[in-house]
Amino acid sequence: MKYLNGLALTSAAVLLAACGGGSDTGGSTSVDNSGARGSLVHNPPLRVTGMTAAEFASRLGETASGKSLLQIAGTPKCGVNFHYMEYGTVGGASEATNATGAIMVPTGSDPACAGARPIVLYAHGTTTDRAYNIADILDPARPGASEGSLLGAMYAAQGFIVVAPNYAGYDASRLAYHPYLNADQQSKEMIDSLTAARKALPNIGSSDSGKLLLTGYSQGGHVAMATHRALQAAGQTVTASAPMSGPYALAAQGDATYFGNVNLGSTVFTPMLVTSFQRAYGNIYTNLTDVYEPAFAPGMDTLLPSTTPIGTLFSEGRLPQTALFSSTVPTAPTPQLQALFNSITPPTTPPALAPLFALGFGTKNLVTNKSRVDFLLDALANPDGAVPAVTTGGAATAPAHPMRKALKANDLRNWSPKRPVMMCGGNGDPTVFYSLNTQVMQGLWTAPSPLAPPAGLLTVLDVDSASPGAGDPFAAVRAGFAQAKAATFAAGGANAVVQAYHGSLVPPFCNAAARGFFQQVLASGI
To answer: Which of 272, 289, 452, 523 could form a disulfide with 447 if both were Cys (CB 3.0 to 4.6 A apart)?
Structure first.
């Protein structure tokens, strides 16, 4: 659920003008304006740029941790052609819309780059910038460029085709909002982007081996897991998946936040969730002031994602930076709830994060006390199996509050994978709590749980942990993360680590682990 800052809106027209358009094959271009799900508007799609392996290696700059992306991803084996596609999909209320995304194709004579290649279908993390475009890597300052470079280096330059949607509501999408963490819509859109990309491959000099690998980080971790679940339910091929640092137990994450464990970024995530669920279900509020304080309510339903940088929204007072809830303790209708309010932070997730949680309370807060009380009354009457302490581990049986019902509807604690899955994250994550998401899912997927998959299908990696010793396939990933974390601490102290942990420290190392996991699965022929 990370968010990134961007600079300006990038449209399909701007990209076409800047890059010249055209195809790899020199053939004619077909146009499909039907708007049908999975339709590819321009075939072949625009080629944004192409680089040889050597040229790509020279572009890979420094990360926030001081380690170069080249060091983490490894020397490119392949060149990469970056393409920009537009496709038909649906919004959160099943309305027809369009969206855009990237196709990255490996090139070169190395056997790892030629012939039919496996596809990595990638879901990106939370961004407030409506201009986000993973395909536009030419200017490192453009929103989406850094994640596009990461995907190109980590996967395409090592022989994987990459398909990465920008999501409905971003870039040149006509949708006026983003269906944030709507598991049904986002999994449909991932499948639509894959369908469209497969139509393009024959016209851009590539072919699909039939091996499909799903991954994504943060919001994208949730989306990747939801997509695996949807494809499995439809009987379609999934070779393996590697969701990373995602809010899989979404309802538990929501309950923890409202109980007082206010995660970093909550003033962004909350309105994006409220808007998404209001658009999908229509019952989250009657008036915006049912949820938000009057100072912030006007326009909150259309604020995010935005063409205005998030820092500007904070500085202009259009959104509080950290104060999700009021520091004035509300009067609760039950002694149990009053005790929780008086303590502010119940012991549900890492105690070391308590100072961070306290920042979630202030005088210029976003969510009203009444809205919070109503939510928590339902949480006490219909408790989640993971909050405030792990009991069953499952979502609440029958939540009655509309927001809690929506969170449960998009929670992923209700299925069991039939193909290999690796979950990766870090135990100190201040944004998506590792204990409430990765560890809770691990518990539900471990025997004797009825949701446990067949033995050998589940791998769980905490990059912020010591290697168990000889035979650890992720020893280098753990060591690299430890070095990056130590360098961040040395440069800025503990606060710098908290700020960088979810958004920049963990992602490259979990992606490196995901790639290694995929390579292992492909080599094993499972």
So the answer is: 452
433-461 residue pLDDT tens: 999 999 999 999 999 999 999 999 999 99
Q: DSSP assignment of 182-205, as one string?
A: -HHHHHHHHHHHHHHHHHHGGGTT
Q: Is 177 exposed, middle or buried (0-12, 13-18, 19+ CB in 10 A)?
A: buried
DSSP secondary structure, 34-68, as one string: S--TT-BSEESPEEEEEE-HHHHHHH--B-TTS-B
The tokens 């536009």 sit on which residue? Answer: 136
pLDDT in tens, 103-155: 999 999 999 999 999 999 999 999 999 999 999 999 989 999 999 999 999 99
Backbone angles phi, psi at 447, to 5 degrees: -55, 145
pLDDT of residue 9: 28
How far is Cα 53 from Cα 49, in angstroms, rounded to an integer?
Answer: 13
CA dist 264 and 67 (Å) reads 24
List residues bridging with 499 in a β-sheet.
none
Q: How far is CA 66 from the centre of its chain?
A: 23
The average pLDDT across 266-283 equals: 98
Q: Which two tokens stand for residue 352?
A: 């070391």
Provide the 3-class DSSP secondary structure of residue 242: strand
Contact 134, 166 (CB under 8 A): yes
H/E segment holding residue 280? helix 266-281
Average pLDDT of span 27-42: 92
